[in-house]
Structure formats: C-alpha cells, structure tokens
Fold these 2 entries.
Entry 1:
Amino acid sequence: MVHEVPPLDAKPTPASVPPPDVAPDGRPEAAWISRPVAPVAGAASGPLAGLRFGVKDNIDVAGLPTTAACPAFAYLPSAHATVVQRLLAAGASMSGKTNLDQFACGLNGTRSPYGAVPNSFDARYVSGGSSSGSAYVVATGEVDFALGTDTAGSGRVPAGLNNIVGIKPTRGLLSARGVVPAAQSVDCVSIFARTVELAAQVLAAALGPDAGDPYSRTLALAPAHWPARFRFGVPSLRAFFGDTQAEAAWDAAIEQLQALGGTPVEIDYAPLAEAAALLYDSALVAERYAAVRPFFDAHPDAVMEPVRGILAQGTGYGAADHVDALTRLRALGQRAAAMWAGIDVLMVPTAPTHCTIADMQADPVARNSRMGAYTNFVNLLDY
C-alpha cells in the first residue's frame, strides 16, 4: 500500500477527530474540512515562496487528521505525504485540508458528510468532484493552488466546472505516498491553479520518483512545441445529455483549435467508452474496495451511500474475474492505440453537462455517471 492506515485502536480518540461541523449544502464553508490555527510554513525561500496551497483531505499533512471525508476512518499522520513535503520545501505554505467526495468516490462534490461544496459561480450548482473543495478554494482566491487526486476525472471535472486549470499528470509522475488510495494502480495526484504558468511551476516542484510509492515511475518530460499545423482527435460520440450550452461551447472549442492551425479528425470513441465502463462495471471496481478493505469490512455503516454501494460491489468478484477485466482493458487499449497514427493530440470535453446540487442528490448515480463520460478512460489507458 502507498499509505499504511493504522489499526482502528491506534487512530485518534474521538476528541481528536470531532464529528463533522456540517456546513449547509452549497455554502462556502463546505469547501474546508480542517484548517490549522496558523498555516504550515514552508521553506523561507524557493520557487513557490510566498504562495499558499490547500490539500485534499485524502492526502496526509503531519499533525492534521486525514479523514477522506469519513470521520470514522480518520487517522493522524506523523509525516507529510511526499508531494506535500516537496511543496513545503519549495517555499509554499499549507493553508488547510479540503472537502471531497467520500473516499474520492464521485465526480460531483456532494458525497460528503461535511456538506456539498458549491460551484464558485453559482452556489446552486455542483462544484464537481471528487476534489471539490480544492477546486473551490482556488477558484475563489482563498489559496494560490491546491492538490487534488484524479482516478477517473476528479482533478479535471471540478477544474472545468470552476473555470480554473487542472493538471492531471501521467500516472507515477507525482508520488502518491501518503495518499489514501481510491484505485491505487491508476491514482494520480493532481494540481489546481488559476493559470497554466503557476500550475506548471507547482508540477515542476512536486514531480519526481519516490521509492516509497510502488507505482512511482522515473519519467522525463518531453519538450512541447506548438506546431504551425497539427491534427487533433475529436470523439465520434457527442453525448451532452440535452445540454445545448455545453454542446455549443464544445463546437466553439473545436473552432478555436482550427484557428490555431489544427485539423479535426474524428476518432472512434467506442474502445475508450468501453474501457471507461470497466472502471465500475467490471471486477476492476474491486480495487476501490481493496483500498479501504479492513475499515470497510469492520464499519460498512460508517460509509455513506452511494459510496457504500460502490465499495460493496467490489466484494463480489474473484481473482479470475479481475484477471479477465485486466485482459479486456489491455485489448481495448490496443484498439484505442490505433488512433494515434492519425492525430497529434486528443481533445475531449471535460464534463459534458452541469447540474444543480439538488438534481445531483435526487439522482446521484446516473447524474454522476454523466460527468465521467469523457474522463474515466484516461488513467485506465495510461494517457
């Protein structure tokens, strides 16, 4: 495991981790789970000196409880997550722990006992998740940047819905040591900022291999140069679920890339969509259960719905089922790889639609599924 969760009898006493002080749904206070009296100070100098950042509360900060938005799960880490330590060493100061969909299981920001995080433009609407609080506090200027995680879109969807920058790094580029896993083999630590420049600076300070993370990799960043002419892939699937504004914005984005010298090339989205479906509709969902198995087996009622149902689904598969699902995923990856012969870059909508908190809570599974229509495949296929 990237993070060894202490046994239940070694966790903080209830007084150390009080019951959630729940903010009403859609209130700004819901963005934070905990904030220290004073920020955790970074180094006196460095490339990020003077900047403040927030940390999604499934990432360890020494001395502050890590809850993963589940108070009964909370533990008190004695060390910072590797990525937090690197940012502090670069001079940034840590302002607090942000709210999330429980166990990073959701793309909407309403699945938390600490309250539903509002959208920064209209509090009636969802922020996107699971890194809901991190996106909100960056969008509203409470911090300069924030850390999230991204397994199926959790670092991209809330960035898009709050009109900020979200970087979902290549798997293994940023250490996940000290991060509560969601689906450990495909988890990524993500970055939120208000500009691409700052997000890139944070990435440069945070990246690097870590022998303490079994999925860490030594990866070199290739120089990127914007060519005069390029080909960009456009999915054959146009799924906007009746959201005409989102569809119009997508068409405008295609026109913008054409104005920059791009030529749109339709790609077959079927293998990408089939890969995405494996995340929850196959034995791959067992990895979600495995991430918190000891806690979930002992305390299933401490997990809120629909997260509980998703984790429980993972208990129904055997090892052979998981092997079959992995083989199916590899086969879909081979099919999908053919598209790269005809394109230089793939463009997809971040989220195909947006909805209110009330609508999400009324239909939490179907509405959440729509949010991931164009994001779920990415980490599975190691893009």
Entry 2:
Amino acid sequence: MISFIVMFMFWECLPAQIPALNSWPKAKAAIFLDFDGQIVEGTAWNHGVRINAQPSHLSNDDIRNIFRRVADDFRPFNVNITTSQEVYNLAPIDKRIRIIITPTHSWYGNAPGSSFIGSFHWGDDTPAWVFIDMLGNDVKKIAAVASHEIGHSLGLQHQSVYDENGSKLSEFNGGSLNRLTGWAPIMGANLYSACTAWITGHSGINRDSLQSDVTLIAGAWNGFGFRSDDYADDLLKAERIPLDDEHFSFKGIINEASDADVFSLDLPVRAELVMQGINFELGENKMQPDDIVVDILGERADTVGTYHLSRLISGRIDLILQRGTYYFVIRSGGDKKKKLASMSYYALSGSVVPEENLKQLTFQNNTKDQLIQIKMPKNEE
C-alpha cells in the first residue's frame, strides 16, 4: 500500500506530455517554446545560482493556442517554432534559443519576461523567459510576451515613442487603441491589442535610431532569412483565419511581384466585417502601400471588392456580408513581370460582428426629410 501511494504521488508530480508542434520543420534554425520546466545553470542569468524553473502546467489546448500565435508572428521567416526538445537539440547551437515559459519568477523580479539582446546566436544555450504568473496565465498575453522576448534575442530593441524634440515619451509604442481594428508593435506595448505586427519605427535607443524589425530578424547575423513563400496562392490551400472574440488579424510577406497570399474566413451567420491595414512604415526600398492590393472573394471566387492597402491604412473596409466562406487575396498591384527591389511586409486586422449583435439607431433628418440608420455593436453606447 505504501509503495502504491508513493508511486501515485510520483506520477502526479510529473508534468503532462507536451504536444510536439513544429511550424516549419525544414528550417535548421529553431525557437523552442519550453513548457515543461528546466534547470538552468552556467548562463548569464545564473551568477553562480542554480535556477529551477517549474513546469507551466498549462493545458495542451492552451499550449497549442500559444504556439499558433507565436508561429503566426514568425511565419515569414525561415525558422522553426517548436515545442520539441529533440528538435531544439538537433538545431545548430548558434541558431537556436529556448524560451522557458514558467511560473518561476521570484529569482528575477516583477516582470512578465526577459531576454538578452542578440542571445539567439551566442551559441551557449542562454535562454529567454516568459513568467506566466505575472500574466495571469492568459494565453494571448503569454504568446505576446514570448514573441517580444524572442524579438530581443534576435537583436531587436523596443519600439518607442518620442516627441519632435527627441525626448522619449514612452519606452513602449502602443500603436492604435481602436477597439475594432486596434494593433500594436510586437516590440512595443503588445499585450492588449487585437493585432500585433513587426514595424519600422524609432527604437528605444534614441529618436534617430530607426529599427526595421523584419529586416533585422532576417539579417545575416541570425542566419536564417525569409521563407521562399509563407502562404499559398491557391484558394483550395487558403490559410484559415481564426476568430478571437470576434477579432482577427493576419500578416505576411509579398516575396515578389507574382506572389499572392490567400486566407479564408468563415462566417457562420450574416455579419458586419470591419478591416483596416496596419500603419507601419515600409522603409525606402519597400513596395509602397499603393502597390499592395487586397481582393475579397466569395466562396464561388466572385469578387466582393478590391482595395489598395494604402486606403485601408487611411480608412477601412466596412461591409455587411452573408454567411459563408470568404477569401482574402493579398497581392502586388504592380507589373507582375517587374522584379521587386525588396520583399514587402503587410498586416491587417479587423472584426466580425454578427448582425444580431448590432443595434440600429434611427434619426430624422429634418432638412431632407430622410431617415438615417446607423448600426453599431449593442455593447457600445
């Protein structure tokens, strides 16, 4: 009986089996999301003290959700986001990093995560950290911090905000706080926005230090570059866009003038679609926003609308759509035979509100004797 109780207690203490997930198995470089605990010794974090990071004890569903979000952020790059220790071990030591996702944070202090800048290619297995207790075990926030700390390990500084005189107003650029289509830089204040994106902006060093996140991540020092193509250009292989509490976002790279990325969105009921482009700087050698086009197609490949990204940055799409599957085709609007000077990164965010959740306000226009009807979400006043 005593042996049985001891064995039972032993098995209860073992961490649950972590699902083996890989975003891009053919890549040699690896970013390891480590959920099952790790003993850390002999790194720049230790200062002679052994760190026993406890397992996250997150559910497999939560782990898959976090993995999906982080993998989405790194989809343009030729790097494998993995939850497998074996895959991490096989990666070149100077092209890998372990992100320890753990509740163990007392040794460090009150911060949601931490990473040494450039540690991805140090070649000594120095990890980065995400402290889940500081994030209330919220999967969206855990994923946001993971991508942020990975960014640091790949050489990125914070994206910051300065006034016209060069004085720093905020260490963390908050992006747009629009409720329906809000976004934030991954290297800024990225915990609460519906969409996060890599941007070109003023880094935390000073106002004159412009940082192109995408260019730096894919730079020679990290040694992995871009994928040859991040999304299929075929409607039959369209990447499904998941909804997160009526919000959605997607991002990618147009690799060449003939490239197209295809996404699909399922609407179970008639609903209002609101979508907007992310207003990040593209840089001198990038395609201008006018050169990127968004086609919205119905499930029979009929065209619902065609929009230039520049107009989605200054304005937005606002449509009432019937239930069904819709496709978003992101492509170059220029000459397909013309070689691009550089790849172009894009990001869009939006929301889908079922029509039954919209309330209708009716006003009398006394000057023209017309009725004006406005629909808005019922929870907004």
